[in-house]
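Cross-check.
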Amino acid sequence: MTDATDAQETAAEPALRTTGGPRRQPLMSQPPDDVESAPIPLLEPREGVPPVIATEAALADVIAAFAAGTGPVAVDAERASGYRYGQRAYLVQLRREGAGTALIDPVGCPDLSGLGAVLADTEWILHAATQDLPCLREIGMTPTRLFDTELAGRLAGFPRVGLGAMVENVLGYALEKGHSAVDWSTRPLPEPWLRYAALDVELLVDLRDALEKELDRQGKLEWARQEFDAIASAPPAPPRKDPWRRTSGMHKVRRRRQMAVVRELWTARDQVAQRRDVSPGKVLSDAAIVEAALAVPTHVQALMALPGFGHRMGRRQLEQWQAAVDRARGLTDTDLPQPGQQTPGPPPPRSWADKDPAAAARLSAARAAVTELAERLGMPQENLITPDTVRRVCWEPPRDVTPEAVAHALTSHGARPWQVEQVTPLLTAALTPSAPGGGEA
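Predicted model, tokenized:
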């Protein structure tokens, strides 16, 4: 997996730093029980690095082995983010008791629905499940039950929830993470990369078991199960509307004609990237798109003088980008994009004080109460309740502010039962006009 959580660790305080937990034998060696002891490097999978499965015959053997296995299955996937177009999987790793570890090449075996079917009733263990589920779904693998070790770490209050940090803090082993951002579309995959990939699922079952015990100790296990069920049952995310608006540096683009240039260049770049199966950033940088939008060049020579369109770019490429600019220049005013993306829901909170001072006061009270409760529970605020849900309820509160009405509003915005139970008293107080300070009920 490209372990984004290693770079985006939560700032929550840990409820308990655990080093114990069940372990499956034989491990490399048992880690010490002392919390402060140095982690033991985990350098080799316990059965060695398995061969890459790239044929239908070999896949059939894996399916049979995993169907005969017992207990949950550890699952991971490697993508080629930054190298290839899209987010498809280029390696799938699995481990299950009685089946060992399997490394499957989705290029050679693009349909893993048979494997997904035999594991349909099995609990899947993933780390940061929402990162891998879309690419797994594309190749026919969709869990009905899962345990997310990254999310479990957040709910349990661990300060760092990347896989390497969790394995180290909970189990006492150090995983080598040097290959997380390599080009996994490379063929053949180098042996060190395969070793890294196999180790990513080596201890997931052990990590899951230890985290389940810790969540149970804290009284949060049922909360975690509700979160895992919500992830497993969530439908695929719809395509993002106007994705060109997310171009880095877009805040510099103020005029509608300039926005049209961004849209045309972004669309042209996306078509080229998809055709060549490369990351869009390797075709044309976001910075270059913004420079062209600000300048709105009228000919190729003017375009070539801009940063990102230098002498190393071929004439044909320059003409292609200039054609996109020209399309934007030729649009009528009615065809130009509107400033700002129209999204459902409340306006940005920074404008609330002017638009609706009462709503701004409700939001301030609600945020303070949620922050205090999240700290008391030892978890990030966004896992207690999403900021978007808080904003929506504060912007359009129930007509009659009662606990039942607030609970219904939270549920309608997707809050899980445990979240509704924890947050309803806080929001009821924050939404009550007679209690602008928003004390706890």
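Residues 304 and 313 are 8 Å apart (CA to CA). The chain has three domains: 4-233, 243-335, 349-431. Passed to J.P. for a second look.
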